[in-house]
Design brief:
The chain has 394 residues and is an alpha/beta fold. It contains 12 helices and 12 strands. It has 2 domains: 45-92, no CATH class; 95-390, TIM Barrel (Alpha-Beta Barrel), CATH 3.20.20. α1 packs across α2, α5 (165-180) runs parallel beside α6 (206-217) and α10 (310-321) runs parallel beside α11 (348-360).
Length: 394
């Protein structure tokens, strides 16, 4: 039986009106810019900023080490800086960018989801997750998102504004600090992986995200010195930006949120597909693999009777294999069950058939762990829940 549920059968998640439909937008509602921060610059830029303020340029090295290695922004911790200059230097390059608005724990304390308030009151989320062999942070790159995916709460908020590099990197510093200080169950550990899968479409905030990738990868004191292999940038399919990223010399993993192998369904499921079709997107993803040597992840949320048909698994395998073998890895993600909604989890049997079809066709496939599913798992849901609560209290 081939039941077909369409994304348009119901108003989008979080919609305020039953007839509401997603609207794609690249324009931010707010134009405000976060205060300038050390992490917005490379080392040369930090030196120039200090010099311009009449301070010694060589202090940039020390300050960078405090931020990226010791993970502190507190002038009291910086005894190698002259007492008389500490506050001035910190005020200039280490303004407070993010403030904790809420924190929720799940998975027996191995997952912590933070809601951060930014300087202008905008809110974003990050999720820190401990696994047996790694500790991963999922960061936000925009406040809200303009991609309007109908299954995503963030998409229904629209794009408030792009984050600055400093605002992205400070999410990472705070998470590294939390991991180091034993905030996750299992004791102190080191943050090893960063995924750009929180709020926002990272490639729609391209320059800032590339700056953040440099700060993540560059060795201390310039950055955190994380391995590029452990960093993943996820996209719904901004084809020109994928091509550009492949040439940055930053061999990070690209994750494509595909969710449908046919344009007919994907046009409704991922509105940006109206601009760049599945074929163009997979061509760009394959080119990314060829240029960087990094295998591309294909993310595929399995939604009951919408995109989980065996014929779609076959079509996906054919589309991938027609471009070569071994270049992509498919991660089917079972959706959280949402009773009464069209966005609900595939049956176990459908999941198995989908995975078997891909594997039978030689496509590497791993069902992904859905961490934090008991704490408003998908991006944007925590912010929506907190906002709702605040409105109720007003
Ligand atoms: S799924 Fe990602 S790209 Fe789509 S609206 Fe949500 S945050 Fe934006």
């Amino acid at each position: 039986m081939n039941i077909q549920v369409r994304p348009t059968d119901q108003a989008p998640e979080g919609a305020t009106h039953p007839d509401a439909r997603p609207v794609l937008s690249f324009k931010a509602k707010r134009r405000g810019k976060a205060p300038t921060h050390l992490a917005d610059f490379d080392l040369a830029g930090r030196k120039a900023a200090l010099k311009e303020a009449g301070l010694p340029a060589f202090r940039a090295d020390q300050l960078s080490r405090h931020f990226f290695t010791h993970l502190t922004t507190n002038p009291a911790d910086m005894s190698d800086l002259p007492a008389g200059q500490r506050s001035q230097i910190c005020e200039l390059l280490l303004p407070r960018l993010i403030q904790e608005a809420a924190a929720i724990r799940a998975d027996d304390g191995r997952t912590v989801k933070h809601l951060w308030e930014l300087f202008d009151g905008a809110r974003v989320e990050s999720v820190l997750m401990r696994y047996p062999s790694r500790t991963t942070l999922c960061v936000s790159s925009q406040a809200g998102c303009g991609m309007a995916c109908p299954f995503c709460a963030t998409g229904q908020m629209g794009l408030t504004r792009n984050l600055s590099t400093g605002e992205i990197i400070d999410q990472v510093r705070r998470a590294s600090q939390a991991a180091r200080d034993g905030d996750l169950a299992g004791g102190p550990t080191r943050l090893t992986n960063v995924v750009f899968m929180g709020m926002g479409e990272p490639l729609a905030n391209y320059k800032t995200v590339v700056g953040a990738l440099h700060r993540l990868i560059d060795p201390a004191p310039e950055g955190f010195g994380l391995s590029a292999r452990n960093i993943t940038v996820s996209t719904v399919g901004l084809v020109p930006a994928i091509k550009k990223l492949s040439k940055e010399g930053l061999p990070v993993t690209l994750a494509v949120s595909l969710h449908a192998p046919d344009d007919d369904l994907r046009d409704d499921l991922i509105p940006i597909n109206s601009r760049w079709k599945v074929g163009e997107l997979l061509d760009a993803a394959h080119q990314y693999f060829e240029v960087t040597g990094r295998r591309v992840s294909i993310e595929y949320a399995l939604i009951k009777n919408m995109n989980d048909h065996a014929w779609r698994a076959q079509l996906l395998a054919d589309e991938l294999n027609s471009r070569g073998s071994g270049w992509a890895h498919v991660n089917p993600i079972p959706l959280n069950p949402t009773p009464g909604s069209i966005w609900t989890a595939s049956t176990k049997a459908a999941q198995q058939k989908f995975v078997d079809t891909l594997r039978r066709n030689g496509v590497a496939t791993t069902i992904r762990d859905t961490r934090g599913s008991d704490i408003d798992g998908a991006c944007g849901q925590l912010a929506t829940a907190v906002e709702k609560k605040m409105k109720e209290q007003q």
